[in-house]
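Batch job 17 of 40 flagged for manual review because the log was empty.
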Amino acid sequence: MTFDPLAPPEPLSDSARPARTGLARLLDGLTGLLGRKPELDIDSLTKRILLPALPVTDEEMARATHQDKGQKFARQEQWEDLAEIIEYADSARLRTPGGEAATGLLAYGARADVVSAAEDALHDGAEPDGDGIDALEEIRADLPDSYPMALVLALAHVDIGLAWRATATDLTATRHEARFLEHFKRAEDLLAPFDGPDLDAPSLAAAQCALLAARPTPRLRVADDYATLIDLDPDTPRHMRALGEALLPTRYGDYESLDLEARRTASRTQDVWGTGGYTWVYLDALARDPGALARLEAEFFIDGLRDIVARRHNQHVINQLAAFCGLIMAPKIGTSRLPAAQEATRARIHGCLDWLLENHLQELHPLIWSQTLLSPGLTPALPSRRALVARGRQAALRVIAERFAEEIADGTSIAFSSAGMYRLPAL
């Protein structure tokens, strides 16, 4: 679960794509997480979990609407209209039901065609055609005082720069790294005249966080850059989640810095999230690196979970948190186990699945569960959207069935509705 400050996950489609590798990884993850009870027994019990599922959610539709709008304006060359709506989305802190900033989605759609063409070329081992980025440069030159246009172009350079780095091999590493730095330098120059706090524009502050990938000493800036962003837009969880991932030892920080900034973030966002800022900062960090449990304070984290639910009680967030507790925090066996104290912390967080299911879950959002199962950073050969929905539903029902196996072993069923979870007698 890696979250770039501005680039939302690419929309999934049902188009024919290679699915075997991604689906196999997903199934392996499901088997590893839920293989502690006999498979046939759990599969049988899942038939007694009556939980309505939404293959397409309000959150997905809202994200697609913003992305499509950005793409439509770009394709029809309505750049001034695009700039106006990005400025409005920034100033109004417009977001999706799940808390995703609309500015990032609009900017993503506006640059999607240019970036996708460059990424496809690089993955094919070819030099990207420069016509697309050059056209954006010309449009930006016609609107030099428009920060939304600078933002769209800068983020296109960021995405293409990251694609150069991601496609490097041992033989091409030097050249690809040079091109990565060239694109990031251009992005930095484009954004230099515009200041996020002065313009009250969280999108600009988020773009500065994206530029950390090419800073010579990002460790010295990551906390301050993200603090600026979070202070501008504390209602958007993505920023806090990105901060936590950025502070992992494999990125720009260490476990001590992660815990310190999680506490600072909780303090600064207390009016919005209570103690939830601590939990948001740790969420993606734990998904990427369970070793982050070493410094995590379980009681603080669990209090944060409760505060998030109390303040953002929609089913998108409930599914996110339930999938995290049920899958990411599931007890490990064998070589995957951590030291006893960390496993105890993991077990306490996993136990939060009970009250999330019993008191808050009303409908299943399968894609959230399937995306939680996928290993962080897995992008090639993703399964089709239909396969992800099916596997997400299977994962969720198995987690719930395993959690309540003793209660429904007598033939009773568990049902979910807007009134909460309840039991149905055996027929």
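Reviewer: the log was empty due to a logging misconfiguration, but the result itself is present. Strands lie at 49-50, 413-417, 420-424. Unflagging and moving on to job 18.
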